[in-house]
Design goal:
834 residues; alpha+beta; Topoisomerase II, domain 5; Gyrase A, domain 2; 5-stranded mixed beta sheet; 4-stranded mixed beta sheet; 29% helix; 24% strand; elongated; disordered N terminus; disordered C terminus
Length: 834
Amino acid sequence: MTSEMGKKDTNIGKLIQVSIEEEMKTSYLDYAMSVIIGRAIPDVRDGLKPVHRRTLFAMGEMGNTHDKPFKKSARVVGDVMGKYHPHGDAAIYDTVVKMAQNFSYRHTLVEGQGNFGSIDGDSAAAMRYTEVRLDPLSEDLLADINKDTVDFIPNFDETLKEPVVLPAKVPNLLLNGSNGIAVGMATDIPPHNLREVCSAVCATIDNPDITLNELMTHIPGPDYPTGGIILGREGIARGYREGRGGRVRLRGVATIEDDGKKPRIIITEIPYQVNKAAMIEQMATLVREKKIDGISDLRDESDKDGIRVVVELKRGAVPDVVLNQLYKHTYLEKTHKIINLAIVDGQPKFLHLKQFITEFLRHRIEVVTRRTKYDLKKAEDRLHILQGLLIALDNIEAVIQTIRSSQTTDEAMSRLVENFALDAIQADAIMKMQLRRLAALEHQKIVDEKEGLLAEITRLNLIISDESHILAEIKRETIEIGEKFGDDRRTRFMADPGEIGTEDLIENKPVIVSLTSQNYIKRMPLDTYKGQHRGGRGIIGMSTKEDDIVESVFVANTHDYLLCFTNAGRAYWLKVWNIPESSRTGRGKAIVNLLNLDDERVTAIIPVSEFREDRYFVFATKEGMVIRISQDLFSRPRTTGINAIKLRDDDELIDVKATDGGNDLILTSLHGQSLRFSEELIRASGRNVLGVKGIKLRFGDELKNIALVSKDYLLTITSNGYGKRTEFDEFRGHGRSTMGVRNIQTSMDGGVVSSKAVSSDAEVILMSSSGIVMRTAVSEISVQKRGTRGVRIMKLDDGDRIVGFAILEAGMDEPAADDAAEAAAEGADDVSEE
């Protein structure tokens, strides 16, 4: 064999050693770039991948425009595949279908007739059944393509030419976005609103130094074809600023309806690229698996007018909680990435928002310049011919005589050129001139056309004389497109409420929390215990080990913080909903599994909904020391806890109370001594201090608790089941560090458990060391003077004793009217018996 130069190729038949590493690297890079450039990543100029560009171009060449009848999709696919894109009909038809789906494209580029699929994931009908034509907007992508505005290259078999890029009057990449996966990279550009994009393009033309923040006043964020609500703009700003790393949290639109019987959630918009049928199936699965509670039925009532998914709720369900569960666990909320990767000058590049616009403008400047030069040349060529025709008309008799006297056409043209100072082009036009042009009216038309051409040439020369004039032309066209095709924004914005946490999925309601001496904790619904009369025996509230007793019980809301204070004077944070809910007889969970305790036990727990600088915690130790610290100093949770107060040897923290800064306190000891004084006598201090003396104790006595002077009475209960209410006026104020006065008579087997301020219409929940719980009305406990024994409140078995009690204020667990009616209808017991 010989080469083209006639020289023999000496490498024929020889083995050439090639490094496999280098060959693999070269081949892989060639393949990767072929996928990146030729298939998966859009061009920044027209926002299209090759298959989209070829499809639109082929439809334009076929005359398949919006003002012409539809053509079969199969015909379009065949034309594209046979002429420009020999990669299979399925890929081409999928492209045509997607460009016609109004839930896939913010502004469709193809107008379809027939079944083009649905948002439920239904496939389009076969291409032989559907028909298509270009959408009016896509014709602006193709506008002026025959005016030498873009370069053309040979098609795959070099029999035809195809455009490298479309002229694109529309910034399509921002408008419809794009997504694709190449080799080692991917793109995910969100769609935007046409009016906003056009406004941003015009603003950039007016101010080339426009900043990102200024651009975002024109383009605040993506605008998805399916609507929805965008939560926050921080992720959008990052994507616009860096070109990648941005995230858009997109929620469907749901409203809560309540007709007085059962509430329902109505979903009218779903996130972009979410399959509605799959979303509903996902919801149903989660309901069956009991991962979402409160839903009784799901119905899809969507029709041609829009989406409508009805979520029926069970009676008593909290709609906001159920809706948060749907946002958390289903496709009703979806996060979209922002990866602004596009082809710029033949290479993949990450683009920030302004680069999208500047690259589009750079493309449009070139297109408008080439178009103007093309139009200018056509106008000048036409003017040249008109000038020749006018010369001929002014000398018509001589021209006719010259032509008639010539033997051949070539001779006539030569004589016209010689006799009338014409060129060959003008002479040819004269030879082709029809006789009707000899009419006076036709002569005037030529004169008028000449004047119009002169004006047009002046305008075109002005455009290309300076880039500012080109930009003005681009701005004019952009404004026209925005006014012609723009519409209102579909996707709305809402402040980001933050990531939906477990707390958002839990109803905020009061519960009972109990703690044992061995620090087992649990929570139970308030209606676990029915009311009983004073002197009742109660019911089993917890099964405990022989060496474990229930020490405290209180009421808190599930969303409250629990500040857990230990005997070592340390503080830990715990959310009420983090405490496992248990049955009435359940033991609960060891608190060491919830808190990072270090050889210490919890002795006081305070529910807190907010931490305020003007509110305080008052601490009391077993030896009678008191400390007052602002709640604000405990507002920053730490998993390892913090030091709250400092303790002397052999002392320990026994009680903590939350105050407003101006309360009177009553300190009560084991032997029934009570001391009342103002908390203002305790100077507010920082954390980790020893404090001051609160009550002076006799030998063998110890401080049991602090009570706030509030409400109607002081309720004091002893461990042997006796108790009484005492009016606060019975306790005169004393100075700090005194012994106080006798509150209640105690016996050797019945020291004070605690004393609390109560209202007349409240209830008290008592718990014994064996786990027996009793709930009774405070009004059934006698009001007695201080120094008396009180009355029997709870009958105890031998060896059992009261270890704690909680106050339940009136109305804290009253059921809603609908719930009460339903409970009565089902024969359920009332929540409480008054």
